C-alpha cells in the first residue's frame, strides 16, 4: 500500500494531498530541526499534551559550541519542560554561538522569529513565555530579555550575564538567575567589597528595585547543590530572584524544574 501511495505521488504530484499543520509539525520535532530562513531551531512537546491546550513556552539558548539538538535531549532542560506541560524551543546559534555583546545583533530578531514560527505550529500561551539559557546562552537570554523583554514573563538564566553597566530598554516581568561563586568560565560577577548580590544589578536598576533584598535562606533540590536565595520584590512592575551556590560552571540539577514549578504554581518535583 505504501508503495502505491508513493508511486501515485510521483506520477500525479499535483493531486497529492497538501501537507497540513500536523504533517508540517511532524517534519521537525526533537532532533529534526525546524527550518527558518537560513537558520533553524528545535522543538520538543511536553508529555501527554492533548494537542489543543495552549502551551507555555521555554525558549532556551544553548551554550558555546553546542546546538539545539542537545537541548531537546537534556535531562535538566527538556526533562523539566516535558513533565510540566511546557513547549521547549531551542534555537541554533550561527556558528554554534551567540552574538550577545551589543544590542546590534541579529540573534534577538531571530529568536523572536522562532517564537512566531512555533506559534504557527502550536497553540502557545503568550502570557507564559519564559526565556532561559546556559553560559553564553545565558548571556544571550539576558540580551533577548534586555531588547525584547516586554513579551517575556520570566528570564531563567544559568551562569552567564551581560555587563551590569548595560542599559536595557525593556525587561521581563520576572528575573531569576543562578550562578556559582567558583565559576571560572563565565566568572561570578562579584560587586564592590565582594558583594554577591551584584550579578543581577542590571535588572534591579532596570526594574527600579528599592532597598536591600529579602534573604530567603538556603534551599536545595538534591544533596549535590545548596542555593542561597535573595529576592527583590519592591520593584516597579517586576521582581528579581538570585540563587547563589559555591560550585562552578554547570546547570544545577533541578534548578530549571524548580523555577517552572514556582512560575506555573505546580507542586515541587524532581526532575
TrEMBL record:
SUPFAM superfamilies in alphabetical order: alpha/beta-Hydrolases (SSF53474)
GO biological process, one term: xylan catabolic process
GO molecular function: feruloyl esterase activity
Domain of life: Bacteria
GO cellular component: extracellular region
Primary location: secreted
Subcellular localization, as worded in the UniProt entry: Secreted
Alphabetical UniProt keywords: Carbohydrate metabolism, Hydrolase, Polysaccharide degradation, Secreted, Signal, Xylan degradation
Signal sequence, renumbered to the chain: 1-18
Family from the record: Belongs to the faeC family.
Job of this protein: Involved in degradation of plant cell walls. Hydrolyzes the feruloyl-arabinose ester bond in arabinoxylans, and the feruloyl-galactose ester bond in pectin. Active against paranitrophenyl-acetate, methyl ferulate and wheat arabinoxylan.
Name recorded for this polypeptide: Polyhydroxybutyrate depolymerase
Species of origin: Roseovarius marisflavi
Amino acid at each position: 500500500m505504501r508503495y502505491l501511495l508513493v508511486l501515485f505521488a510521483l506520477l500525479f504530484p499535483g493531486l497529492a494531498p497538501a501537507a497540513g499543520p500536523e504533517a508540517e509539525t511532524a517534519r521537525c520535532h526533537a532532533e529534526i530541526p525546524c527550518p527558518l530562513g537560513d537558520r533553524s531551531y528545535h522543538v520538543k512537546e511536553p508529555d501527554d499534551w492533548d494537542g489543543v491546550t495552549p502551551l507555555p513556552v521555554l525558549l532556551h539558548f544553548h551554550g558555546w559550541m553546542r546546538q539545539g539538538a542537545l537541548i531537546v535531549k537534556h535531562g535538566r532542560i527538556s526533562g523539566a519542560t516535558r513533565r510540566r506541560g511546557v513547549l521547549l524551543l531551542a534555537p541554533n546559534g550561527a556558528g554554534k554561538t551567540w552574538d550577545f555583546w551589543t544590542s546590534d545583533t541579529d540573534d534577538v530578531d531571530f529568536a523572536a522569529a522562532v517564537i512566531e514560527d512555533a506559534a504557527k505550529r502550536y497553540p502557545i500561551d503568550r502570557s507564559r513565555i519564559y526565556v532561559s539559557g546556559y553560559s553564553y546562552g545565558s548571556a544571550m537570554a539576558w540580551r533577548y530579555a534586555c531588547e525584547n523583554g516586554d513579551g517575556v514573563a520570566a528570564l531563567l538564566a544559568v551562569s552567564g550575564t551581560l555587563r551590569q553597566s548595560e542599559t536595557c530598554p525593556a525587561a521581563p516581568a520576572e528575573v531569576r538567575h543562578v550562578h556559582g561563586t567558583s565559576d571560572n568560565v563565565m566568572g561570578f560577577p562579584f560587586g564592590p567589597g565582594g558583594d554577591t548580590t551584584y550579578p543581577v544589578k542590571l535588572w534591579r536598576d532596570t526594574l527600579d528595585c528599592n532597598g536591600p533584598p529579602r534573604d530567603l535562606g538556603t534551599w536545595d533540590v538534591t544533596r549535590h547543590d545548596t542555593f542561597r536565595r535573595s529576592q527583590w520584590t519592591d520593584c516597579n512592575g517586576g521582581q528579581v530572584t538570585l540563587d547563589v551556590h559555591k560550585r562552578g560552571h554547570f546547570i544545577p540539577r533541578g534548578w530549571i524544574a524548580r523555577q517552572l514549578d514556582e512560575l506555573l504554581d505546580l507542586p515541587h518535583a524532581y526532575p
